[in-house]
Specification:
126 residues; alpha+beta; Ribosomal Protein S5, domain 2; four-stranded mixed beta sheet; 4 strands; 48% helix; globular
Length: 126
């Protein structure tokens, strides 16, 4: 599990990411991300009751995602807020290496999308 410092503590932070963030979707997961000015990265995992009725299974999915993020923490860019939204209960049973791969691809795509936004901001200012 990630340290508490790197997780969201209230709904306010999650609401901010939903409102201001950019979204990348896959069939099983979605990533909503935005910059933060805290000096460190924060993560959140949302698993709806529509995905899994049992709180025990939803928490298991959440713990697996947090663990995959913890293991690969050094590869993730700093100063961003990431919110992973789980759409499929397959995440609970899929091999851990596949989960790591999906999360890694989402984070890499977020880097590309953020770089594109910086590029377009520079062009707009000219």
């Amino acid at each position: 599990m990630l340290k508490k410092k790197y997780r969201f503590h209230s709904r306010g932070g999650v609401r901010y990411v939903y409102q201001k963030g950019k979204t990348i979707r896959t069939p099983k997961l979605s990533l909503v991300f935005t910059r933060n000015f805290r000096g460190f990265t924060r993560f959140g995992v949302v698993v709806s009751k529509k995905v899994e009725k049992s709180a025990v299974k939803r928490n298991r999915i959440r713990r697996r995602v947090y663990e995959a993020l913890r293991v690969n923490f050094d590869l993730i860019p700093k100063n961003k807020d990431y919110l992973f939204v789980v759409f499929s209960k397959d995440v609970e049973k899929m091999p851990f290496s596949e989960l790591e791969k999906i999360l890694g691809e989402l984070v890499e795509e977020s880097k590309v999308k953020a770089d594109e936004e910086k590029f377009y901001d520079i062009i707009r200012r000219r």
